[in-house]
Amino acid sequence: MRAAGDRLQETARQAALALPDVSHGRPFTPGLDVYKVAGKVFLIVTDDPDDQIITVKCEPENARAHIRGYASITPGRYLDKRHWISLGPDPASPSG
Fold it and tell me: Is the pTM of this model over 0.90?
């Protein structure tokens, strides 16, 4: 699933950087890209090639719906499970 994971992460990075007033850094560890608006984290992208996920902030009711609806979306890893979701490459992706 490496190609699908690369696309997911690159798309997330590009979308985040296209937003106004976004800041980007690695305040937690060298392997985590952290994106913020107004000092608040909204996206985390891991550099781990064996665990290609992105983690995004999400309204709790939307998070629950996404988790129920998609196998590639799980409660946010290492974060508040009500407000964060982690997305991985779609296991059904033919180009994975």
Answer: no
CA 77 from centroid of its chain's CA atoms: 10
Please write down the long-range contacts of 43-49, taking CB distance under 8 Å and 24 or more positions apart: 43/12, 43/16, 44/79, 45/9, 45/12, 45/13, 46/9, 49/2
Q: How far apart are CA 3 and CA 9, in angstroms?
A: 10
pLDDT digits 0-9 by tens, 83-93: 999 999 876 65
How does DSSP assign 16-73, residue by residue?
HHHSTTEEEE-SS-TTEEEEEETTEEEEEEE--TTS--EEEE--HHHHHHHHHH-TTE
47 alpha carbon, distance to own chain's centre: 11
Residue 28 near residue 34, CB atoms below 8 Å: yes
